[in-house]
């Protein structure tokens, strides 16, 4: 890998990111894996990988044409995928707007030559990576809500020590309807 890796994502408000970091510190011991920094807590909608500048521009144009309503995201589920080593927060019942947005972005990415997973979209925010040992998940009863009014095209640098994702572009969702 030499160039940046791109993906579409939902970024979370800074206040929610801080709340999730505090909750994570309360519920998961430090030896469970490597916690993601607050700014890295986001929901990937479609992975694009390393793509050409013309593909980035084309996908930006396609994303700008999306006319999806804003929606409320509720994070009220937690899980652990031992094979990938991820501990995550997700939605017990994902809003239809989220599922539609992810499906649109994945379809457009696939048409642009970006392979998409064959598994169904599982909306989640990664909290910890490199968690390969069994973990104890918190009891149900936690919940955070946030209004999602846009989505972002993100890029992770291809080389160097700093690998934090940066926002390349933001795309608004329609806010005149409230589903």
UniProtKB/TrEMBL annotation:
Gene3D superfamilies: Cyclic phosphodiesterase. The keyword Phosphoprotein does not apply. The keyword Hydrolase applies. Keywords: Hydrolase. It is an enzyme of class 3 (hydrolase). Its EC number is 3.1.4.58. GO terms for molecular function: RNA 2',3'-cyclic 3'-phosphodiesterase activity. SUPFAM superfamilies: LigT-like (SSF55144). InterPro entries: Cyclic_Pdiesterase, RNA_CPDase. This is RNA 2',3'-cyclic phosphodiesterase.
């Amino acid at each position: 890998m030499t160039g940046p890796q791109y993906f579409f994502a939902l970024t979370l408000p800074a206040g929610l990111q801080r709340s999730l970091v505090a909750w994570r510190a309360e519920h998961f011991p430090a030896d469970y894996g490597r916690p993601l920094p607050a700014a890295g807590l986001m929901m990937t909608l479609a992975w694009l990988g390393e793509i050409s500048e013309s593909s980035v521009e084309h996908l930006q144009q396609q994303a700008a044409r999306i006319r999806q309503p804003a929606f409320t995201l509720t994070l009220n589920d937690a899980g652990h995928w031992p094979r990938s080593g991820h501990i995550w927060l997700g939605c017990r019942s994902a809003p239809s707007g989220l599922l539609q947005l992810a499906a649109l972005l994945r379809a457009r990415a696939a048409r642009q030559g970006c392979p998409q997973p064959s598994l169904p979209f599982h909306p989640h925010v990664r909290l910890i990576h490199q968690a390969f040992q069994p973990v104890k998940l918190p009891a149900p009863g936690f919940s955070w809500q946030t209004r999602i009014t846009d989505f972002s095209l993100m890029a992770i640098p291809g080389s160097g020590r700093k690998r934090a994702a940066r926002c390349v572009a933001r795309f608004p969702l329609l806010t005149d309807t409230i589903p």
